[in-house]
Amino acid sequence: MSSPSAPPSAPAAGTLDPRRWLMLAVALVAMFMGVFDFYVINIATPSLQSQLHASEATIELIIGGYTFTYASLLVTGGRLGDIFSYRRLFIVGMSLFTVASLLCGISQTGTELVVVRLLQGVGAALMVPQVVALITVTFPPAERPRALSWFGVTLGLALVSGQILGGLLLSADIADMGWRVIFLVNIPIGIVTVALAAKLLPKTKAARRPKQDIVGTLGVSASLGLALLPLILGRSEGWPLWGWIMLGLAVPVTAATVLYERSLPARGGEPMINLDLFKTRSFAVGLLTIVGIMTFYSGFIFGMTMFLQAGLGLTPLRAGLTFGPLGIGFVVSSILARPLLMKYGTKVIIIGQAMLVLGTLATLAVLKTEGVDISPGMLVAPMIFAGLGTGLCLPSLTGVVISQVPPQQAGVASGVLTTAQQFANTAGVALFGVIFFNVLGTKPSLTDFVSALEWVAGIGAALSAATLALSFLLPRGRIAPPRPPAAAPAPVATATAQEAQAVR
């Protein structure tokens, strides 16, 4: 947003709300739910497919539809928060997310579930970008780093618990609800969160409401939609011609949107995305670095999930528990990342990325050494190491990226960053999925699964190393207390059980 409007800044020390940490907890619930609800759907796909008699394409739409609207509308959600107030958009988004969860839980056909999953993604896109802005207006600069550490903890828990808690919920089979419980569990949480948000979140408004940018909003959403839909459905549909046409159209539509946004200020308008954000080295380089990390991270987790479920034959719950060390490492190091960043600057990011590369190479070494004799326990140490590295670099990078973003652009900057993360997640699954399945072949043995994961780990390590080199372009020195991190990285797509069964 390029508006010179003056939204509320962080409160002075004498006016701090004593309930601000409870406010933070309320805001972080939205981030947790947005990430959790993508992971959990992957665990339930066998039940979904059998009970709804859904085709593979329908299952892909149930999973990817949420991703599609979530990613396509994140920037718009951030902009609307800048215009109409972060509290209002948070409540609207959470309410819509909760209602959509109810509709998901009572859906009777695959088509119904696809439609309401799209609606659920809209709710997530409205509520998640408001988290960073709400922290900005609630906490003074001295307390924001501490809020950042809680952000990292929540993110790590969400990344792990989607598969683990999803497996537990399905195994418990509460009231014989089957897959429906993974959606219905959101309802009491959503109702309580909306009630607390209405009571606790600050009723702040900008001094002047910025102008709306309808053309820019449509252009950004169309650009992302044209790029995301082929990536979501391309693999299951055999990469059809329409997918390549959409990807091709995404380029001129994006270029036209950028040109329009760049020219709008000269005509008295206020672009949805202030392109001057990308002139700041910390924002531009940090954003590219995050995209590289998330592309690798999502693709690696996809390949590992396929290997565990289809190759080793683990249940979804056991496969999810195998990722526990990765999440634990992430949570621990994300807590330590903030004070280390304050003391040592961007060296922490470089060290974290180096650990991620080494953890991936260690996984490759285990695969090469053990071959078909590999067991999940052999992956614990490499996963912990990779998790520690990811926890050091990702929260630190988000802090660096938004450290120089003006408060009045907090919502849009959050949306831009989260959209980039989600796009990277989708692209990573598509890219590494092609690699994995091409190596796997049509009638794979365990040897083929090991070989496929070796390729994923090797190419992933190379991509991660290239991203490490890019991080050397970040500004050096110690980092001033950053503004809070962007909204949660959109969830990483993991292999569905239906996909796993297809290659067993």
Automatic annotation (TrEMBL):
One of its GO terms (biological process) is response to antibiotic. Residues 483-504 are annotated as: Disordered. Its main location: membrane. It comes from the Bacteria. Residues 489-504 have a biased composition (Low complexity). It is a multi-pass membrane protein. Residues 23-478 form the Major facilitator superfamily (MFS) profile domain. It is found in: Cell membrane. Pfam families: MFS_1 (PF07690). One of its GO terms (molecular function) is transmembrane transporter activity. One of its GO terms (cellular component) is plasma membrane. Keywords: Antibiotic resistance, Membrane, Transmembrane, Transmembrane helix. PANTHER family: ACTINORHODIN TRANSPORTER-RELATED, MAJOR FACILITATOR SUPERFAMILY MULTIDRUG TRANSPORTER MFSC. This is MFS transporter.
